[in-house]
């Protein structure tokens, strides 16, 4: 067949990045979303998400990329991905109502021979439960990583496909599309594919938790995790890309969602959950690292303390504040005055009654008793320690993500604290 | 049990506080702290209300009104055996009968960190309740009784090891060390005194209790400083408060050395519940107590 026409339903972070990546592989691509205002902004080239290289990738492939709020346009598509956000509550439980609704809309508005693929994160059992007689419904594991979505979407390591008959060849349109990415394709039964996504995230959480657990120990016994992690990365059993950077627990919502899903299913089937509970507990514990140090060194001594907070997003290169450690910290600082700067997220996203937005990172540091660098935005690396020391009233700098050079910070007279080292 | 939540976002004085068990060190401190905060207080000791007596429940009921915020701190402590355990549960049962009749507005129970498992480090309010002593089981059972049967907003404050000038007990720790030194005796520590524990000043427990009443909070909060200090270090802090400094000597442990030596707390919930609350550092608190005892 000629190249399939590919549709994406749901112009979410995932849907939009995936759609533009599809266009970049030479496929005529339709981005559908019921939100006409959003579609109009997309038509005008205004992207609602922040991702490195995404704007450029759209501009270069604009001729193959269409946007529409009319579901009837999906009739033209041979392959339609369903990619809405599946929101989670604070416990990480998914609300699937939006996905149910959009899937129904897609099934109604696509041809019977079109391949429909669920791309959103779904709990095991979802895809099989939504099979329709006479329709082709598949599931694909999405590997979006906020902040490097373009690279993940254009150069995936593999395609993991949940299929009703894994031994049978994939439908031609799906196979043709997936083959364009030049990576291995792994068809498997639905439940395996759904659990693969969760398994990947559990492995990542395990690495993160190892790093966070041992980083805390480093802080007490005089070791430095930054010296240890490179040695681990050179071990082939651990790997160069393993998630070994210590931080402030888990954030962003997706990892937490999968832990909640495993807990829920394990409880239903009576399997052991102790490891997952340990992940959750350690995440909550490490998240509060900055709060504990602030109390110990500043808040208990300075009733009128003024605190600078750099970064609100849950990580760099994203506007998402889901489970952001920064907001968690700010939530516990209500009696004090805050000066806040994030390159993308406005100060209005904070729950704090007395937080002032600053014009720049250095501006947020002016006159503060302590500065907490709570999101590893690359531009925070540019801050000169001497400038910080000059404008700050106090000396304490909390830098969990090691954005500043510890030696320079100490030379500038700052009381520099980071995770993983005494 | 859930972490502490405030029904009053802004501190609001209850019409009256009633301290049941005001005769003890903790109850007495809470009464003093309530007075400092200007909250009208009814202090009940065993003299006014004997919850183990046949009319204890009626005595308590007639003392209460619907607007009262209750602090229940009365206990036969420590509950070392089955009889003391059961006596404490009967006291709670009698109190519950009075609460059912009088429907007070808020109940704060002064519990204990003994309700947690010995190996729960670092202890948080979410650590599983798994007591290893009858004393811990007593507090766990009383918490459960109050939480399930009292119909109003309920909070439990769970102090760790408490010290204070009025401590009647001479358990292993700063109070015993001070008394030994005052008598001119050497301070004795078991083994090398390696065990690290968190010690909280009774005044800090009382201040937390008052804040919980002001916020009409529900849920559980530990009263611990977040800093664990070895008995060795505490002995030397106390020793150096005397002139000349007291001697600290090591004596063999009374039993086999316990496998678990330490108890640490993660006190983030306290930062979250009361962001501007700060515990008195141990060394400072011990110096203050020394001054209060010896003038």
Estimated helix fraction of chain B: 25-40%
For the terminal residues of chain A, how far apart are their CA atoms?
62 Å
CATH architecture of one domain in chain B: 3-Layer(aba) Sandwich
The helix-strand sequence of chain B is EEHEHEHEHEEHEEHEEHEHH
Task: Assign the CATH superfamily of the largest domain in chain A.
Answer: NAD(P)-binding Rossmann-like Domain
* Residue-averaged pLDDT of chain A: 94
CATH topology value of the largest domain in chain A: Rossmann fold
Overall domain count of chain A: 3
The biggest sheet of chain A amounts to: 8 strands, mixed
Query: What is the H/E string of chain A?
Result: EHEHHEEHEHEHEHEHHHHHEHEEHEHEHE
What percentage of amino acids of chain A are in beta strands?
A: 5-15%
Structure description:
With 422 residues, chain A is α/β, with parallel strands linked by helices. Chain A is built from 16 helices and 14 strands. The longest helix of chain A has 32 residues. The mean pLDDT of chain A is 94. Chain B has a domain of 185 residues: 3-Layer(aba) Sandwich (Rossmann fold), CATH 3.40.50.720. In chain B, helix 1 packs across helix 6. The longest helix of chain B has 21 residues. The N and C termini of chain B lie far apart (42 Å). The model of chain B has no long low-confidence stretch (mean pLDDT 95). Classes of the chains: A alpha/beta (422), B alpha/beta (295). Chains A and B meet through helix 11 and helix 12 of A and helix 8 of B.
């Amino acid at each position: 067949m000629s190249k399939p026409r590919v549709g994406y339903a749901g112009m979410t972070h995932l849907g939009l990045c995936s759609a533009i990546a599809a266009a970049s592989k030479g496929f005529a691509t339709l981005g559908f979303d019921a939100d006409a205002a959003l579609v109009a902004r997309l038509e005008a080239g205004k992207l609602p998400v922040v991702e490195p290289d995404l704007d450029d990738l759209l501009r270069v492939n604009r001729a193959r990329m269409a946007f529409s709020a009319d579901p009837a346009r999906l009739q033209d598509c041979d392959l339609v991905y369903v990619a809405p956000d599946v929101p989670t509550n604070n416990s990480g439980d998914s609300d699937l109502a939006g996905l149910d609704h959009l899937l129904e809309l897609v099934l109604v508005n696509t041809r019977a021979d079109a391949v429909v693929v669920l791309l959103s994160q779904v709990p095991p059992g979802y895809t099989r439960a939504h099979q329709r007689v006479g329709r082709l419904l598949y599931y694909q594991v999405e590997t979006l990583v906020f902040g490097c979505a373009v690279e993940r979407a254009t150069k995936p390591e593999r395609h993991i496909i949940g299929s009703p008959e894994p031994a049978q060849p994939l439908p031609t349109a799906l196979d043709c599309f997936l083959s364009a990415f030049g990576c291995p394709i792994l068809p498997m039964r639905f439940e395996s594919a759904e659990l693969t996504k969760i398994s990947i995230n559990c492995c990542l959480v395990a690495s993160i938790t190892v790093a966070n657990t041992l980083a805390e120990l480093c802080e007490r016994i005089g070791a430095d995790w930054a010296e240890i992690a490179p040695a681990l990365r050179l071990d082939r059993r651990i790997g160069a890309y393993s998630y070994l950077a210590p931080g402030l627990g888990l954030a962003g919502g997706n990892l937490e969602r999968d832990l909640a899903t495993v807990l829920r299913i394990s409880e239903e089937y009576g399997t052991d959950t102790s490891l997952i509970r340990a992940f959750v507990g350690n995440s909550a514990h490490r998240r509060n690292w900055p709060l504990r140090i602030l109390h110990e060194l500043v808040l208990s001594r300075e009733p009128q303390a003024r605190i600078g907070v750099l970064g609100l997003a849950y990580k760099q290169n994203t506007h998402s504040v889901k489970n952001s450690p920064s907001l968690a910290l700010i939530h516990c600082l209500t009696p004090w005055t805050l000066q806040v700067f994030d390159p993308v997220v406005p100060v209005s996203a904070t729950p704090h009654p007395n937080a002032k937005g600053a014009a720049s990172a250095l501006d947020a540091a002016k006159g503060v008793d302590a500065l907490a660098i709570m999101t590893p935005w690359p531009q925070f690396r540019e801050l000169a320690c001497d400038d910080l020391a000059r404008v700050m009233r106090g000396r304490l700098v909390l830098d969990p993500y090691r954005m500043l050079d510890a030696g320079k910070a100490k030379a500038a007279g700052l009381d520099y604290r980071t995770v993983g080292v005494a | 049990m859930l972490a502490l939540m405030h029904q009053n976002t802004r501190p609001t004085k209850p019409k009256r506080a009633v301290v049941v068990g005001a005769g003890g060190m903790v109850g007495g401190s809470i009464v003093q702290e309530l007075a400092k905060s200007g909250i009208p207080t009814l202090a009940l000791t065993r003299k006014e209300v004997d919850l183990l007596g046949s009319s204890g429940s009626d005595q308590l009921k007639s003392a209460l009104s619907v607007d009262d915020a209750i602090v229940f701190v009365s206990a036969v402590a420590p509950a070392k055996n089955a009889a003391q355990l059961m006596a404490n549960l009967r006291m709670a049962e009698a109190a519950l009968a009075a609460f059912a009749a009088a429907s007070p507005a808020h109940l704060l129970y002064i519990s204990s960190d003994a309700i947690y498992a010995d190996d729960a480090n670092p202890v948080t309010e979410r650590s599983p309740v798994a007591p290893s002593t009858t004393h811990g089981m007593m507090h766990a059972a009383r918490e459960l009784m109050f939480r399930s049967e009292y119909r109003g907003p309920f909070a439990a404050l769970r102090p760790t090891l408490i010290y204070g000038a009025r401590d009647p007990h001479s358990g292993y720790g700063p109070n015993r060390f001070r008394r030994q030194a005052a008598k001119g005796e050497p301070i004795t520590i078991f083994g090398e005194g390696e065990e690290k524990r968190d010690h909280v000043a009774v005044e800090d427990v009382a201040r937390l209790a008052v804040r919980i009443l002001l916020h009409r909070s529900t849920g559980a909060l530990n009263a611990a400083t977040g800093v664990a200090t070895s008995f060795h270090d505490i002995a030397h802090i106390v020793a150096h408060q005397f002139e000349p400094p007291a001697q600290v000597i090591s004596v063999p442990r009374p039993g086999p050395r316990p496998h678990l030596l330490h108890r640490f707390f993660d006190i983030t919930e306290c930062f979250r519940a009361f962001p501007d609350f700060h515990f008195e550092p141990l060394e400072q608190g011990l110096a203050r107590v020394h001054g209060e005892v010896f003038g």
